[in-house]
Every structure is written in C-alpha cells, then in structure tokens.
Design goal:
This protein is an alpha/beta fold. The protein has ten helices and eight strands. The structure holds NADP nicotinamide-adenine-dinucleotide phosphate. GO terms for molecular function: oxidoreductase activity, acting on the CH-OH group of donors, NAD or NADP as acceptor.
C-alpha cells in the first residue's frame, strides 16, 4: 500500500462551461467531507477552485489539492525547464496557494519531452512547491521511462478507470511500483448507468449505480476516485459510496464484465500508438 496521506475520495472539476460554479461546488464538497480536489491548468477553473478552497471552513493542511500541467493542446514549442516552473507557479497563483499536494504531468505526448519536463518536476518537488509528483495517461513503457529520469517518487498515476475499463495492467503496475492509481471518469461519464450488472447490484443494496461503480473502484487496493459533479445531491450521494460495502459476489460480477468503453480516447492517446 502506498503512502496513506492521500484521501481516496476526491472531486473532479472538469467542465466545458460554467467554470465559475466550481467555487460554490468545491466549498460544498469540502463541507460534506471531500478532502481531495482535482483540477488542471487546462480546465481554466483554478481561480474558482481556489475561491472554494478559501471560502470553506476546512484547514488547508487537511485538503489534498492536485493540479496538472503539460497538456498536448498547449500551443507553441515544447516547454523548457523555465516554462514548466512558470506553468506550475501560474497554477499556484490562480489557486491562491503556496504549494499543491500533487502536480501531474497531464499527457505524455505532444509538447511532453521526458528529459526536459521531469527534471523540472523534480526541482519543484525538491523546493517544496509540489508535495508529490503525479503522472497521467501514461503506458507501462512510458512509466518505466519516466521513473528512470525522475528522482522524486511517482506518487500517483491518473487514468480512466471504471467497470467498463478495468485497467488490470496499470493497476498491477501501480501495485508493484507502490503508487496510487487515481481513477478518472469513474462513472464512465454516465455510461455505467446503462450497465445491467451495475443496476442489479444497485437495486440489491438500495443504492445508486454511481455508488456501486465508486465502491467497486474503492474495493481495489491502492485505487482512488475523483467523480465529477456540479449537482449538490450527487455530491452528497457520491461521497456516501465510501460507506457502501459490496460483497464478494458483487465484486466478482463486476470484475467479470468484459465489454469495454473508453470515454477519453483521442488519437494522440499513447495507448493508440
Ligand atoms: N487526467 C485526465 O486526462 C482526465 C481526463 C478526464 C477526466 N479527468 C478528471 O476526472 C474527473 C471525472 O471524470 P469525468 O468528468 O470525465 O466523468 P465522471 O466523473 O465519470 O462523470 C461525470 C458525469 O456524471 C454525472 N454524475 C456524477 N454523479 C452522478 C450521480 N450520482 N448520478 C447521476 N449522474 C452523476 C455528472 O453530472 P452532474 O453534474 O449532473 O452530476 C457528469 O455528467 C474530471 O472532472 C477530471 O477532474 C482527468
């Protein structure tokens, strides 16, 4: 089991619009018990996330804040070390924080060059600007390559994971290399509501399909979840998934689902190479 100062239940904050809503949602999330908030430079909402963090009555040191930089869509030439340091400091400034708990490399493609990006992450780690280094959307080969360069430990790897994309290989890799696997799109952006096995288990326990998907993920060792919602009722019911204990039959039934659906599947996804 990797380091345990990591709240396994977090809030994802991506949205195409209404970005200012995140101030209120993040504040509400913290009030109902969330202690891990996930954002990214590219989400263009860090200032609103920061506002929510500031307005909530929870101390900074009790909250795990993660953000991400180095995105394939960032225009211009590949960033050099100074660009990465500036990008990270920009995140902190918008969030209104003097450190973040984790900074992820968002995508290991496009402007990503491991020999430039990772030493900059090491520097941010050494100077305490970031408490942990995270990677996102890597393959096992790219994880191996990154770990050859990085001096800082990889704390977490964030990838799409849910009952329709079970990520056995990356889960095994995370377990063997002692880092967290953070499941993004843990509700398959709503697709899990159309899975009969999930619905049946939800009916059996008198809970929502969202809670079943989240509880199944949390039943796996070293897995964390970051469901997104802008709805206060969902905010509350999702976090209650931490209290749902699925039985062995439920887990076996979901583990056995072989149908696959990848929600985030751009051509540049390194798994498509
Ligand atoms: N690293 C990466 O490259 C990457 C990529 C994608 C996502 N992420 C992160 O992962 C987070 C979550 O993934 P996601 O946003 O793709 O999808 P998701 O969390 O799987 O699904 C979000 C959708 O489910 C709905 N929902 C949430 N709770 C619900 C409930 N209890 N009942 C019914 N509907 C519910 C939400 O609508 P309502 O608002 O109406 O509840 C929203 O439409 C993102 O916000 C982001 O932080 C990271």
């Amino acid at each position: 089991m990797p380091a345990n100062d990591f709240p396994q239940f977090g809030l994802g904050t991506y949205s195409d619009d209404n970005k200012d809503y995140w101030a209120g949602i993040v504040e509400s999330a913290l009030e109902v018990g969330y202690r891990h908030i996930d954002t990214a430079q590219i989400y263009d909402n860090e200032e609103y996330v920061g506002e929510g963090l500031k307005n909530a009555s929870v101390s900074r040191e009790d909250i795990f804040v993660s953000t991400k930089t180095v995105h394939v869509d960032v225009p211009g030439p590949s960033p050099d070390t100074e660009d990465i340091l500036a990008a990270a400091n920009g995140c902190l400034e918008r969030l209104g924080l003097d450190y973040v708990d984790m900074l992820y490399v968002h995508w290991p493609v496009g402007v990503y060059d491991h020999e430039t990006v990772l030493p900059a992450y090491d520097r941010l780690y050494e100077e305490g600007t970031i408490r942990h280094v995270g990677l996102s959307n890597f393959t096992p080969e790219l994880l191996d390559e990154a770990q050859e360069i990085l001096s800082a430990p990889v704390f977490a790897h964030q990838v799409e994971m849910h009952p329709l994309l079970q990520q056995e290989e990356l889960h095994r890799y995370a377990y063997e290399h002692d880092h967290w696997l953070v499941a993004y799109s843990p509700l398959a952006q709503g697709e899990i509501f159309n899975v009969p096995e999930i619905q049946e288990i939800a009916d059996k326990h008198g809970v929502s399909p969202a809670q079943v998907s989240l509880a199944w993920l949390l039943s796996k060792e070293n897995v964390a979840v970051i469901p997104r919602t802008m709805n206060e009722d969902h905010l509350q019911s999702n976090v209650e998934a931490q209290d749902l204990e699925l039985d062995a039959d439920d887990i076996t039934t979901i583990d056995a689902i072989e149908r696959e659906k990848r929600c985030i599947d751009p051509d540049h996804g390194p798994w498509n190479k």
